[in-house]
Specification:
four-stranded antiparallel beta sheet, Arc Repressor Mutant, subunit A
């Protein structure tokens, strides 16, 4: 499992599923609101908002709820004003971690994120300490049943950089600025992406082969991801499949 992928835990009990679903709703709606505030409320002229709008719809968030978030962002409705802030730090084994937040109180969020790091064997770092190990890329996932040659034909012409076979799906990588163009080209060709979003991709990875260390790294990543203000957690760890299988038990 590569660390550039966000760590997510599958919840099996209904109560846990409902809790996670509510948290996903809240996080996505914050992203919609900020996108509307920064680029306007029209998805046709605001690519970031269009991406967040589609993410919200894919999460089964009701249309009227999304529209209210957009209106809060544009100022048509009153609401809490969120700001984006990123934190950097280290997990056990020297693994680099980046945390992207949307918050209405940066002092509170900063203190709480620092506490999560320290309680789980990690440490916060100064701005720039680990961000140089990542680059922002567009990541598009497609159903594995789609034809490789057809994906290459359409996506590469639209500006995609790379196509990877990840077993149960195809993964396309683009420059951040080309994500919307590639996504739209695929749709027009009848190949609707399962997901299309900007991610922080690690340029180098830290191999974690010890089960105990892997558990500690994953525990920190999950604890950060579980925080209400945290939108994304990116890391550069790489856990071999057999170690991951043993950790997940």
């Amino acid at each position: 499992m590569s660390g550039h992928s966000k760590w997510a835990t599958t919840k099996h009990r209904k109560a846990a599923v409902d809790k996670v679903r509510a948290k996903v709703f809240a996080k996505v709606l914050r992203q919609v609101e900020v996108a509307a505030r920064e680029g306007g409320g029209d998805p046709d002229t605001n690519p970031t908002l269009r991406t967040m709008f589609e993410k919200a719809r894919a999460s089964s968030i009701p249309m009227d709820t999304i529209e209210r978030a957009i209106k809060r962002g544009t100022g048509e409705l009153e609401g809490v004003r969120y700001e984006q802030i990123a934190y950097e730090g280290y997990a056990p084994d020297g693994v680099a971690v980046m945390v992207e937040c949307l918050t209405d109180n940066r002092n509170r969020t900063g203190a709480e994120v620092r506490n999560v790091f320290s309680k789980n064997g990690g440490s916060m770092a100064e701005p720039g300490a680990v961000s140089w190990q990542f680059e922002r890329k567009g990541i598009v996932t497609l159903d594995r049943t789609l034809e490789e040659e057809r994906i290459i034909e359409v996506a590469m012409e639209a500006g995609a950089e790379d196509l990877r076979d990840d077993g149960d799906h195809w993964t396309l990588t683009t420059e951040a600025t080309d994500l919307a163009v590639v996504r739209d080209a695929l749709r027009e060709a009848g190949m609707v992406p399962e997901d299309a979003e900007l991610q922080m991709v690690a340029t180098t990875t830290v191999l974690v082969t010890d089960e105990g260390e892997a558990k500690r790294v994953l525990r920190l990543i999950e604890a950060l991801d579980d925080h209400d203000d945290v939108q994304n957690v990116w890391s550069n760890f790489d856990v071999p499949d057999e170690v991951l299988a043993a950790v997940l038990g």
